[in-house]
Structures are given as structure tokens and as C-alpha cells.
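Before the break, one more example. Copy the sequence into your notebook; we will annotate it together after we see the structure.
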Amino acid sequence: MGPDDLTKTFVRKGIGVSPGIVIGKAYLFDRLDTQVPFYKLSDPGLIDEEIQRFRRALGESERQLLELKGKLSDVDGGMDPQYIIDVHVMILRDQKFIDRTIQNIREMSVNAEWAVRITVEKYRELFDRMDDDYLRGRISDIQYAEQRIVANLVGKKRAALDMGEKVVMIAADLSPADTAQMKIDRVLGFATDIGGKTSHTAIVARSLAIPAVVGLENITRSVRTNDDIIVDGTAGVVIVHPDPEVRRRYEDKKRLYEEAEDDLLDYARLPAVTKDNYSVEIGGNIEFIEEIPSAIAHGADGIGLYRTEFLYINREELPSEEDHLVNYRSVVGVKGLAWATIRTFDLGGDKFFKDQKHCRELNPQLGLRAIRFCLKEVDLFKIQLRAILRVSAKGKIRVMFPMISGIEEIREAKRIFAEVRDELLAKGESIGKDIEIGVMIEVPSAVIVAEELAKEVDFFSIGTNDLIQYVLAIDRINERVTYLYEPLHPAVLRLIKHVVEVGHRSGIRVAMCGEMAGEPAYTMILLGLELDELSMNPLAIPRVKKIIRGSTLKESKALLNKVMTLASAQEIRTYVEAAMQKRFPEEFQANGQ
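Here is what the structure looks like once it is written out:
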């Protein structure tokens, strides 16, 4: 078992009972937690004192155990109890246990009691993953040692439940007494195993406007204190150990949710049409089917990007064709949505299902991922395609292949698609007649061969997240170079312009589904580029629609033409921000943009 096994992204779905999004650290609630105080060491000079306090508690715990062992030696048949005490003493002397706890004190600047708790949680997770029942049961010995150390650290004092920094509270359930003993201003959100919309947790969360998801069944067995966690109380989804890309997307969702204004929702169901009658289709990007009501409420015309990777992540077994079908039936033909674009799974890079045999790569973002993975694992690919085709009779559907880098890949993907379609037709399955096939333009080589690709597909969808990363040669999840991640870089704008022009010359539609599409500051630039569809986080739609409806295509093209004469990203950004602040002062100056 490697270290990555402990931090793999996984998702739990429950009942969203209090809306909103929160991102933070988990706190696994235990009614015995009143015995384990938590506080930060505000002065670095206190760290060495805390380590010495921990060492003294270790010594005192060992002295107590040896004294107890001496008493047991006088008792007939005392061999087993003495052996168990020896095990506990060995734990107290274990250098790895001691070093990890000291490391927690130093790196997290927390008190010794809490550092011991974090150490034991890590051991507990390791033991829970063991196949051997006997070995799994030995965690109780470590927990006993923990209780004795903490008892010696705390003495006779019993602290009120104080989580220190704000946390997401994880519990089997929470009673009124439980919440009464919490410092509720330290709680960011709730996630519980059981409960419903009228449970105590739900009522408390709604009254305090704290995001909450209940009915998660086994969240307490899946999460450890201090795990990174996202709670989406609107969709009823909890994500544990989110990878950097997912975390960034949810940070955007959180920001947009908090910025949402009731008056903006007035624009949600209005058409995205400029004052000089240029129309743009607006799609919603979703990761879970639970997000569909939000997409409709915020004004999506259709689903412009359904990321299907989460069907695979954190499963004991790969999703079956029926698993896919159940999900797609909730996306295709939905009242209020004119179409649905399903992207075939983009596994690889930092997203993998439980069997990770394929992911040991030095540079996974440039490795076996997305369409490359699909064309290698054809049987997995066909399972998804069969489900997509089977649901296509239910409504308008678009299939989109990610990370296409050349003509060979799209031709092979289409060949497999046609093969699956013919097999289903031979079995008498009903299949929609107007399924559109498209490719994501997110690799520079795809831009260069766009004319050839356009002959093979019905639409392009520009994935700016990866396209910008590859064009500018930066790792967008590397904090040291994120300052270089610039959507308004002249090279990026020229590539997008080229793709749109090629698509339109070839008679196909061009969409944008990357995060750039949902940034209101870029809306007039994207209008000037004459994109046919913008697909984004649903929460961004009302504000983008407001900008579109307040603009004209003519002035947008004039802005774009001016921008295309500028040489640097900084010049372009400065010019665009000034232009948008002048044109929409209420939208941008009020928001500090």
C-alpha cells in the first residue's frame, strides 16, 4: 500500500438538506471527543514544550502499565493480560508512532492530545484496509494506548468540544445535545450517515445557513479527521480528498454561489441574445446528475459537458452498462433541457478508479488518459458507448471525445462507436437518429489539424482548461506557476479564433466548455469570437446572460479586434478589464473585477 492509497478522491451521495458549498477539513465527531482538547500553538516557541509534554505522558503511561503488569504477575492465569500489556508498552515505545506524533505537533502546530489523535486516525485507516480480520482488530490496542496517553496529558480536566479552526463535522448522527456542546461558529458544514430533510441536523443546518448533506450511510467509515472534504448541500454530494482540479472547480462554484444575487436569477431563463440579435446557446457543465435541477434553475439551455469520470472513481467494481444507463437516463430528455452532451470518460492523469494498474506514470497529464485510455481499453469504452446509444432514443444527445490530438484517434473512436451502434441495431434496440459526434479541442495539435478534424465531426467544443495548460507549457495545478495560466494570452486567443473560423468554414458548430466560458469578464471577447455555444458552471449562467443581453455583437467584435493587436497577456488583461468596467460598471466595479 502506497501513500497515494490514503488520499484517493472519492464521492458519497446523500440528501442535500441545507444548500451551499463548503471546502475544508473534516472532523470525525465522537461523543468521547470532549476528552480530547484541540488548540493551536500560537507561539512557535511552545512547540518544543508540547513535545516534552508528550514525552512525559509517554513515560507516565509506560510506568502505569508496568506497574499494572507487576500486579497481574501475582494473579494465577495472568499470562494473557501480561502479554496484552506488553503489546501496549511496545506501542508506547514504537519510534514511528512517536516520530509521527511529534511531526504532527511540529507541522500542524497543535497540542499533543490532538497530535496523538491524528496519528491514531492514520493507523486506523491503515488497519481498516487490511484483509486479515485479526490484524484489523489490533487497532484496538493502539486506541487503548491513545486513551492512556491522552488521559495522562489531560489529567483530570475534561475540555468542552472545541474543534479549533473551522471544520466540516462528520458524524453518524447528531442529537440536540451533540450540537449544543459544539462551538457552532467553528462548524463549516455537516455530513452524517443517517437523517432526512426533517432531522435535527437538517433543521440546525438550515437555521444557521450551514451547508449539510445527510443520509450518506457510511461517511463516518470513509473519512478521517483532517481529511480534505467538500460538502455540496445543494446537490447532496460529498467529495473526499478532492484532486486539485476538482477542488478548484468547487472553489469557483462556492464563490459563485456566495456572489449570487436574487435579481440575477431574473436573467436565468431569458435567452442569451445580444441587443443586435446575435444568439448564443448556453450549456451547463455538470459532474453529477444531482446538479441538473441547479442547471435548469440557473438558465442552462442544455447540458454542454457531462463529465462521466465520477461513475468510475472509488468503486470496488467498474460501472456496468446498466450503471451508465441509469445515470444517462437522468440527463437525456430532461424537461427544461434541449440537449445533453456526454463526454466519454476522461480517466488518467490524476483521475483513476480503484484499480490503478495503469496510472504509474512519470508525467500522467501527458500520458495514457482520456481517448488514449479508451482506445487501449476498448471493452471499457464499449460499455459506455452502448449505454449512450441505448439512451439516445430518449432525447437529443451529443457524444464528445476528449483529448483528441489527431485524425487517427477520432476515426478509430468513430469506428468503435459505429460498431457498437450496429451491434445494438442488430439486437433490435431503439437508437436516436440524430446523435451528434464532436471532439474537444484541448491539444495544440488538434488546433493545427482542425480543418481535417472538422470533416469527421458535427461540432467542436474548446476545452480551455487543458488547452491553455498545453499551449503555455504550464502545470495549472502547480501553485508556483499558476500566475502564468492566462486565458487572455494572445497565443490562446489566436488559437481559439482559428478553431472558430475553421469550424464555421466547414459548416459545424463551435462551443467552449472550459472554465473560460463562465468568466463574465471574458464574455464580450467570446461574443466577438462568434462562438455558437458557451457551456459553464450553472451558477455562472445568470451573470453571463446579463452581459450578453447588455452587449452587441458589433461592439464585441470591435473589442476583440483591438485586443488582437496587443502583444502581451498583461496588456490584453488591462485593456479588457478597463473596457468591461466602463461598459458594465455595476457588474465589475461592484465585484472588484
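The first strand starts at residue 10 and ends at 13. Confidence is low (pLDDT under 50) at residues 1-6, 75-80, 156-160, 349-363. Try to locate both features in your own notes.
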